[in-house]
Amino acid sequence: MRWWRGDLRGDRGSIAPAVPVLALVLLLLAGLVVDAGRQLGARARAVAYAEEAARAGAAAVDLDAPDLRLLPEDQVAARVTAYCTAVAASGAPVVDASSCFRGTTSAGDPAGRRTVVRTHVDLVVPASLLGIVGVRELRASGDGSARPFEGTREEDAR
Fold it and tell me: The Putative Flp pilus-assembly TadG-like N-terminal domain covers which part of the protein (predicted)?
């Protein structure tokens, strides 16, 4: 048993330098997990905001037209911008509410009507633990599109 004690005396304190390094590595891994979750959540919110902004723009239907048409593009843009501004005013970290509107397209409409509203939302959320290594904010973006729907289809009844 005496030889065992002799070997341990030379190794005393050898783990001490590794503890801070391991603690830092574990803290960085925790930061990646936490902030990656925040990034994914922000991306989901950005897509949801963009889709809802597109729906707000697609609601600008010209009720006087004999077929399904959107109001002029500036009025559609005003509805999208108003929605994005309201979201930003509610405390959501929207970067620029005035740049949400990306335009209207026909997107395969047989009559060539521009009925698809396209939007884009950018969000910035503060980083939690990655601030240790200098990452102060996380950016997320989402795109959305919507079109008004006219009538009913057979697959909708199912």
Answer: 13-60
Q: How far apart are CA 113 and CA 94, in angstroms?
A: 31
pLDDT digits 0-9 by tens, 41-76: 999 999 999 999 999 999 998 888 888 888 899 999
Locus of tokens 């997320």: 140
Q: Kindly tell me if the per-residue pLDDT of 148 is higher than 70.
A: yes
Query: For residues 69 and 114, what is the distance between their CA atoms, to the nearest angstrom?
Result: 7
Other CB atoms within 10 A of residue 53 CB? 31
Is residue 83 within 8 A of residue 117, CB to CB? The reply is no
Q: Which residues, other chains included, contact 51 with Cβ-Cβ below 8 Å and sequence gap of 6+?
A: 119, 142, 144, 145, 146
The pLDDT assigned to 157 comes to 46
Amino acid at 43: R
The token pair at 96 is 């620029």
Which residue matches tokens 């009507």? 113
